[in-house]
Amino acid sequence: MKIGTKILILFLTLNFLSCKGIAQETETKKTTTEIDFSNTEKSSIPKPIGIINDYGKIFTESQRTELSKILYDYDIETTRQIVVVTVDSIKPYNDIQKFATDLGQTWGVGTAEKNNGLTIVVCNPCRQIGIATGTGTELILTDEVCKKVIDEKIIPEFKNGEFYSGIKKGVIELIEKWK
């Protein structure tokens, strides 16, 4: 695919993702008095807004754009999808890894046939980070590999207050290991 086509696809995708539809803002209300607690955890999972979901507001607009380009280019080149999510809380979860796994499954990160998604979740106030892999991804990016990337690439930058740099270095390292 020519570079001009890639740029056009990226531009159109980013424009599409920046648009809010009315359908997203309206909710249907149930008229039942029963309370179902079986989906309490999953109901706390936010709705996806793109490949970068900066609910915790730790990135600047230019950082989101740069990271989006890296992730979209990788997705187009390989059909492997990486999603980055920042949040202010993982409640009612206690384990960010479980939250990241449920979020990735709920959002359908990666392709269904290959189950080749990767979800990175950062909770700055909680001081936690989790990387969840699809079953097709975990054959290469094992828990040990992900932990090593977190410990050696991401956390040192976070300790200096450089959240974007930590995520970017971690993403680039994961992409290199996933080739």
TrEMBL record:
Protein name: TPM domain-containing protein
Signal peptide (from-to): 1-23
TPM domain: residues covered: 52-175
Gene3D superfamilies: 3.10.310.50
Keywords (A to Z) from UniProt: Signal
PANTHER family: UPF0603 PROTEIN YGCG
InterPro entries: TPM_dom
Pfam entry (one): TPM_phosphatase
Taxon lineage: Bacteria, Pseudomonadati, Bacteroidota, Flavobacteriia, Flavobacteriales
